[in-house]
Design brief:
The chain is mostly helical. It has one domain: lambda repressor-like DNA-binding domains (434 Repressor (Amino-terminal Domain), Orthogonal Bundle). 65% of the residues lie in helices and 0% in strands. The chain contains eight helices and no strands. Helix 2 packs across helix 3 and helix 7 packs across helix 8. The longest helix has 14 residues.
């Protein structure tokens, strides 16, 4: 498995879209696609550190030395979350907004608790 494979697999395992990861890295989505498509052969230590932080793992995971599933603090993610994350990547900004609006209605209690906690 390549570094690119591990980056993509970890992103999907966490249920993140390409745009989510790009935002966490302060990069654009094209950069994330390059990271995940094996076009980059050498990563700087700064990039590896940023990726590890954004993906809740360690730089050594990307080189195949660590398994993020060994971390008991790692939240469980279902295959449904990965499917949703991949689907969101394909939505237009307007479709994403509509989906988020629907999610807010469906999960009102969860969103209300998060907003109360953030205030």
């Amino acid at each position: 498995m390549t570094i690119a494979d591990r980056i993509r697999n970890r992103r999907l395992q966490l249920g993140l879209s390409v745009d989510d990861l790009a935002e966490k890295l302060h990069k654009n989505r094209a950069t994330v696609y390059r990271y995940e498509s094996n076009h980059i052969k050498t990563y700087s230590p700064d990039v590896m550190d940023s990726l590890a932080e954004a993906l809740h793992t360690t730089p050594s995971y990307f080189y195949g030395f660590d398994d993020p599933s060994d971390d008991p603090a790692d939240p469980p993610h279902t295959s449904e979350a990965r499917i949703l994350a991949r689907g969101v990547d394909r939505l237009s900004p307007e479709e994403r907004r509509q989906l988020l609006d629907m999610a807010r209605v469906m999960f009102r209690d969860i969103f209300d608790k998060e907003e109360d906690h953030d205030a």
